[in-house]
Amino acid sequence: MIEASQERTFHTFVRRLSAWWPIEGRAAMGGMGGMTRGTGDVRVEEWVGGRVYQGGRGGAERERGRVTSWNPPSSFAFTWEVAPGTEVTEVHLRFQRLGPALTRVVMVHHGWEYLSTALLDRYTGHTGGWLAALRRFAAMFEIEPR
Predict the structure, then answer these.
(1) How many domains does the chain have?
(2) Do the beta carbons of residue 69 and residue 48 sit within 8 Å?
(3) Which domain, by its residues, includes 18?
(4) How far apart are the first and last CA of the chain?
């Protein structure tokens, strides 16, 4: 639950990923084959087919997925490359307006069942990652009131 309008919540999520995504610590963007500490911004290209990517040292970019659905300010979805290669999962986000300054963010990350056993084993070491990231996202609204 975010104490902000649906529009503000949606655009903060998409346009300020680098402000709340837990880049410091393990490798960024999932920790599996991602970029490491000290890298650049995490970005979403705001259209169907747009990239979800992270800027790296020296201008390098690391694509992690592609936008598959784009319906601002209510929802968007993207593929998520768990590790370099062809195996991907999908993340769906909904931003439900509950009031003029109250929004529920619903996130579903699915497709893990289609991954190879090796990647699924690696994933178990990252359980709780989205919960921690979304808590950081929610904290931004406590720090930066309307």
Answers:
(1) 1
(2) yes
(3) 6-143
(4) 15
pLDDT by residue for the chain (146 residues), tens only, comes to 999 999 999 999 999 988 887 655 444 444 433 433 445 688 999 999 999 998 877 788 888 899 999 999 999 999 988 777 777 889 999 999 999 999 999 999 888 777 777 676 666 655 667 888 888 999 989 876 55
C-alpha distance from residue 90 to each of 86, 101, 109 (Å): 13, 28, 6
* CA distance linking residue 21 with residue 30, whole number of Å: 10
CB-based contacts of 49, cutoff 8 Å, min separation 6: 66, 67
Q: Which residues contact 40 (CB under 8 A, 6 or more apart)?
A: 18, 54, 55, 56, 57
Strand, helix or coil for residue 44? strand
Query: Has residue 112 been placed in a domain?
Result: yes
CATH number at residue 75: 3.30.530.20
Let me know if residue 1 belongs to a domain: no
